[in-house]
Design a protein that fits this description.
Blueprint (H helix, E strand, L loop, with lengths): L1 H8 L17 H10 L4 E3 L16 H6 L4 E3 L4 E3 L2 H11 L8 E5 L3 H12 L3 E5 L3 H11 L4 E3 L1 H7 L3 E4 L25 E4 L8 H8 L4 E2 L2 H16 L5 H15 L2
Parallel strand pairs: 4-5, 4-7, 5-6, 7-8, 8-9
Antiparallel strand pairs: 1-2, 2-3
Helix pairs in contact: 1-10, 4-5, 4-9, 9-10
Length: about 260
């Protein structure tokens, strides 16, 4: 909806953004079909952010991250705008990153973008995952220095921020929390939850209850979308229009 709102605002009547179902067993041939049909590009969501890597060359940052969420068919190139949207939103909210201790929950495509982006900003990272093996593999593939913790170990580390990169908190897991109930919640820690629906997850509610800030993922969603818009169109995205479209959509969805 935000891209179509941007197209309309800029008078780009020939442009249209739509959601398409993909059959996992027929993924490659469906991508080729979209190219043949004249599509300019696509957004890629989980679980395809790493699967699509073999189909297109990647820009330098995306090569390191190893996860793609935007493809431009004309340029025949894959990009990761999650890292752009994430860092821009942190900057907008004036989150200090230099030498800041941050816990990252998860090891998927968006976690890879978050860890790599944060390390480039001088952040100290602690990764908490159900699989320490996957966490170790992610860190090695990214070529960064980071700690791997259990939740209990992370609690003792006394981080200032926690970033949720897991689906726990969004439908159909909206009643779940990625921080285990068996471990005390870190008092005073602030949370950035990449989930944007619901607007306030259980993890965010806990952060506020324990004296921290709580930021949701709507800003990241729109800012990464704006970066994708610019890749596809070569134009500056009307950010305010895109934010308005997403907020109006959320209001309708939550009624």
């Amino acid at each position: 909806m935000m891209h179509n709102a941007a197209f309309k605002f800029l008078g780009m009547s020939q442009w249209h953004y739509e959601k398409l179902p993909i059959n996992p067993q027929d993924f490659t041939s469906q991508i080729k079909y979209l190219i043949q049909q004249g599509y300019v590009g696509i957004n890629v969501t989980t679980p395809y952010k790493q699967k699509i890597i073999s189909l297109f060359p990647l820009d330098k940052t995306t090569q390191v991250i190893g996860a793609v969420n935007v493809v431009d068919f004309r340029k025949k190139c894959g990009y990761n705008t999650d890292i752009i949207g994430f860092l821009e939103d942190l900057a907008f909210h004036k989150v200090s990153l230099q030498q800041t201790k941050i816990i990252v929950l998860g090891t998927g495509g968006v976690a890879r973008a978050a860890v790599y982006g944060l390390v480039q900003q001088g952040t100290k990272i602690g990764v908490v995952s159900r699989s320490k093996h996957r966490a170790k593999q992610m860190i090695e593939e990214l070529g960064v220095e980071a700690n791997i913790f259990s939740a209990e170990e992370a609690l003792r580390w006394k981080a200032e921020w926690m970033i949720n990169c897991t689906p726990l908190g969004m439908p159909p897991y909206q009643n779940a929390c990625p921080w285990p109930d068996s471990i005390p919640f870190p008092a005073g820690i602030s949370v950035y939850d990449m989930i944007y629906h619901p607007q306030k997850t259980i993890l965010m509610q806990k952060a506020e209850a324990y004296g921290g800030r709580a930021l949701g993922g709507l800003g990241m969603l729109v800012r990464q979308g704006a970066a994708a818009f610019s890749i596809w169109t070569g134009k500056k995205a009307p950010l305010d229009i895109m934010f308005k479209a997403v907020r109006e959509y959320q209001k309708r969805k939550e009624k």
